[in-house]
Amino acid sequence: MSEKKIIVSNVAKEYSNPIAELVQVACQFDSEIRLESSEAKINAKSIMGIMAFNPSKGMTVNIVADGSDEEEALLAMEKFLVCQ
Questions:
Q1: Quick one: which of 11, 25, 45, 75 has the fewest CB in 10 Å?
Q2: Which domain of life is it from (predicted)?
């Protein structure tokens, strides 16, 4: 299991449909991917979960990935959420 704490950038400004695009990034990987904050823990492959989680600018998020491609998954999710 790998995890990394990040601060979300302005994904709403950077992407045309950030919720759907974030789910698409997560679904590219076999690993289980969760996004965690002080209020919630959600499956990053769930569009309803992402909608409820609503990652927004300035939010501190812990990305947790567990599986065969967890390092790649963690990096891809981080790049998306910090708009790199």
A1: 75
A2: Bacteria
